[in-house]
Design goal:
The chain has 228 residues and is an alpha+beta fold. The chain is built from 7 helices and 8 strands, in the order E-E-E-E-E-E-H-H-E-E-H-H-H-H-H. The protein has a 6-stranded antiparallel β-sheet with strand order 1-6-2-3-4-5, covered by helices on one side. The protein has a two-stranded antiparallel sheet with strand order 7-8. A hairpin with a 6-residue loop joins strand 7 and strand 8. Helix 6 (195-204) crosses helix 7 (212-227).
């Protein structure tokens, strides 16, 4: 059974971060946020933080998180497989570089959205977009790393329906434009991939996607270690 080994940026720093890691932080009493720590070639090995958040809304890059974070490498992978992650860091950073000027849409719905191999832009239906968690999933998927079996995920958790509504309300206030009907139709129906679950999925990843049954206990361990 894979284990979770979160490192705190305040306790152990980030010097041990390799080419890529997931970074998770607390942004509210019950809200977490997930993104990437990267050391891309374009930054000459300098650590950068790439994540999808509220800025337009778009995702953006900075040297380190503004608040205390925890990070997790792909610890369950073999040493040979880890070598290939150097390329993944560059791929994710290129997605960031291409899409930062215009930003990406925020949405509780991401069904079949993928990044185009030719343009690196997302191909989305109207109303689709990303959360911090689905951005991590989609970016890794573009690099041929599937961490989650999406069909195994629950889509009827009451607390997720509450979160959906909060996001829709925030989008209305933040963007000043009507929310797409697709999002409204999916409140309480779309599967939500929580930041701690995406982090747990990375902890479990050994080369193939895992199910909710495998990842859920790891996500609870993520929360416990963040609170320790």
């Amino acid at each position: 059974m894979p284990e979770v080994n979160l490192r705190s940026t305040q306790k152990v720093g980030v010097s041990e971060v390799g080419s890529i890691a997931v970074a998770i932080s607390k942004t509210g009493p019950a809200q977490k946020h997930v993104g990437f720590f990267l050391r891309p070639i374009a930054e000459a090995g300098r650590l950068v933080y790439v994540h999808f958040g509220w800025e337009g809304p778009r995702f953006f890059c900075c040297e380190e998180p503004a608040t205390e974070s925890h990070w997790l490498g792909f610890d369950a992978m073999s040493e040979d497989a880890l070598i290939a992650l150097d390329n993944v860091a560059d791929i994710v950073y290129e997605l960031f570089t291409v899409n930062k000027p215009t930003g990406l849409p925020y949405s509780i719905v991401l069904r079949d959205g993928v990044f185009s191999p030719s343009t690196l832009k997302p191909v989305l239906d109207f109303g689709e977009g990303f959360t911090c968690g689905t951005f991590v999933m989609a970016a890794l998927s573009f690099a041929s790393i599937e961490i989650i079996e999406r069909d195994s995920w629950p889509n009827d958790r009451p607390e997720d329906a509450i979160w959906h509504q909060q996001i829709v309300n925030t989008l209305r206030a933040y963007t000043k434009v009507p929310v797409a009907p697709l999002q409204l139709q999916q409140i309480g129906r779309a599967a939500r991939f929580r930041p701690e679950e995406v982090t747990g999925a990375v902890a479990a990843y050994e080369g193939a996607a895992n199910t909710f049954e495998v990842i859920e206990p790891l996500s609870l361990a993520v929360l416990d270690q963040m609170a320790a």
